Amino acid sequence: MSTSEGNNIKPRYGPKVMQLREIVAQPVFAAFCAGGVAGAVSRTVVSPLERLKILFQIQSVGREEYKLSVGKGLMKMWKDEGWRGFMRGNGTNCIRIVPYSAVQFGSYNFYKKFFEASPGQDLSSLRRLICGGAAGITSVCFTYPLDIVRTRLSIQSASFAAFSTTQRAKLPGMWRTLVTMYKTEGGIPALYRGIIPTVAGVAPYVGLNFMTYEIVRSYLTPEGDKNPSALRKLAAGAISGAVAQTCTYPFDVLRRRFQINTMSGMGYQYKSIFDAVRIIVAQEGIRGMYKGIVPNLLKVAPSMASSWLSFEMTRDFLLTLRLDADDP
């Protein structure tokens, strides 16, 4: 081939596209984007069970509207509100979970770098636990106001006696709920009500989740197999989610109770975490701290499995965009 012909060959990609591919394919950025996709996919898959869990959790003693089995609870939700009832609050949850999961996965990979003796070296279980806990706290602080709004939207359309038909006919949206809470319930602190039990639960939850996932996956993945099957990833995600959720579930109940603590008609107004635990155990027994755990465990497997699977598929795809990945 002549020199003139070689000079006429155009580059495969323009300079801007090449630069964008290099940025997107950076490990931390790829994990950030993949985390956002994973969060949206997993929450949408289990939205009906997630909402049912919340309705179970916030019922104090004397509330009978959703004192039902999982199947009957889902049927009641469908009968009362139809498909929209299954997805009530999911839009806000996805808006929340995309940055939440993105920050969680991205910060986990970021914090891991501080504990690695050398790049790519495996961490001990304790260090994974610490990195996961720090990632959980980071993501919660960024997105908590959207979480409390998601809880409010989930229960306001439910057929509780505390909410009249007129009230339910004029349900506010996400932004209006945020503004109303800010103006009428105490400003910024109102948007972070319940964050203490949330952080107390999310740090060990996320830490256990990441730690258990990587441990289980190391057992399920044959040595030297760098590309395990989707089934193994699904199994590792399901097991890690079930372990983490079961160990930290009482904190999730406290979180939901405090998020609606100032709403009238719910039958409780707790003064502190210890006051809430005392009243719940006295009135509802130890089982009160585990209300909604059945639909929660039912959703853990598909939620965590789809989360980890979509995370790794998205991350791996983005990493392939690196320019050297095109080299022979």
Automatic annotation (TrEMBL):
Pfam families, sorted: Mito_carr (PF00153)
Ranges of the Solcar repeats in the UniProt entry: 26-114, 123-219, 228-317
Keyword Hydrolase annotated: no
SUPFAM superfamilies per UniProt: Mitochondrial carrier (SSF103506)
Origin: domain of life: Eukaryota
Record's bilayer topology term: Multi-pass membrane protein
InterPro entries: MCP, MCP_dom_sf, MCP_transmembrane
Molecular functions per Gene Ontology: metal ion binding
A cellular component annotation (GO) from this entry: mitochondrial inner membrane
Subcellular location: Mitochondrion inner membrane
Keywords of this entry: Calcium, Membrane, Metal-binding, Mitochondrion, Mitochondrion inner membrane, Repeat, Transmembrane, Transmembrane helix, Transport
Membrane-spanning parts: none
Record-linked PANTHER family: SOLUTE CARRIER FAMILY 25
Function: Mitochondrial transporter that mediates uptake of thiamine pyrophosphate (ThPP) into mitochondria.
Record-stated family: Belongs to the mitochondrial carrier (TC 2.A.29) family.
Protein name as catalogued: Mitochondrial thiamine pyrophosphate carrier 1
